[in-house]
């Protein structure tokens, strides 16, 4: 524990980038676990919420490397702010999705409305057998009353805070010079 605190104090931007990378990779592993191991297929909104993690994980790895090898302050600052913006957007999208699950507002018609595009009557049975609609307005899993999008709000906001801390550390480092 003491070694971890020493690393955080010695190089806060690098520690922030490492924390962002670990959180993003753990979240990616988590949603793949729910999808492929537990068998909860994602809805369209769930798939859209994954995009910021796919963006943030490699960017955090690059920030970690850049902070360790003396990348330009502006590059590091922009990287942390980009992750913060992406995860803030994701927190909003996840909150919207959680609200759709709680029926606070209507969701997108492609995953929470009626199924209208079945096709011609001749192909009706074939169409019905092949339809696999994962609804956005039904929570597939909950823990303590919070669904996966609800937890995604929390994880996204933690990542926003860590990215803001990394950006602040980069900014403070420039003031020291």
What's the shape?
elongated
Q: SSE string, helix = H, strand = E?
A: HHHHHHEEH
Q: Determine Rg (CA atoms, Å).
A: 20 Å
Q: How many structural domains in the coordinates?
A: 1
Overall CATH class? Mainly Alpha
- State the low-pLDDT regions, or none: none
CATH topology heading: Bromodomain-like
CATH architecture, by name, is Up-down Bundle
N→C terminal distance: 29 Å
User: Class by helix and strand content?
Assistant: mainly alpha
- Please give the count of helices: 7
Structure description:
There is one protein chain. The protein is mainly α. The chain has a single domain (11-176), classed as DsbB-like (Bromodomain-like, Up-down Bundle). The protein has seven helices and two strands. The chain has helices spanning 2-10, 12-37, 44-68, 73-101, 109-112, 124-130, 148-176, and strands spanning 142-143, 146-147. Strands 1-2 form a two-stranded antiparallel sheet. The longest helix has 29 residues, at 73-101. The chain is elongated and about 70 Å long. 31% of the residues are buried. The model has no long low-confidence stretch (mean pLDDT 82).
């Amino acid at each position: 524990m003491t070694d971890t605190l020493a690393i955080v104090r010695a190089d806060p931007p690098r520690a922030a980038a490492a924390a962002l990378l670990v959180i993003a990779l753990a979240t990616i592993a988590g949603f793949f676990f729910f999808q492929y191991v537990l068998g909860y297929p994602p809805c369209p909104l769930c798939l859209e919420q994954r995009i910021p993690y796919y963006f943030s994980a490699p960017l955090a790895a690059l920030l970690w490397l850049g902070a360790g090898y003396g990348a330009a302050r502006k590059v590091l600052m922009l990287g942390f702010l980009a992750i913060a913006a992406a995860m803030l957007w994701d927190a909003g999208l996840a909150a919207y999705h959680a609200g759709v699950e709680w029926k606070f507002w209507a969701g997108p018609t492609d995953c929470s409305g009626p199924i209208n595009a079945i096709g011609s009557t001749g192909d009706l049975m074939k169409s019905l057998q092949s339809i696999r609609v994962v609804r956005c307005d039904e929570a597939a899993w909950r823990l303590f009353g919070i669904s996966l999008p609800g937890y995604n709000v929390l994880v996204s906001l933690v990542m926003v805070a860590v990215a803001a801390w990394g950006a602040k550390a980069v900014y403070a480092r420039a003031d020291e010079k």
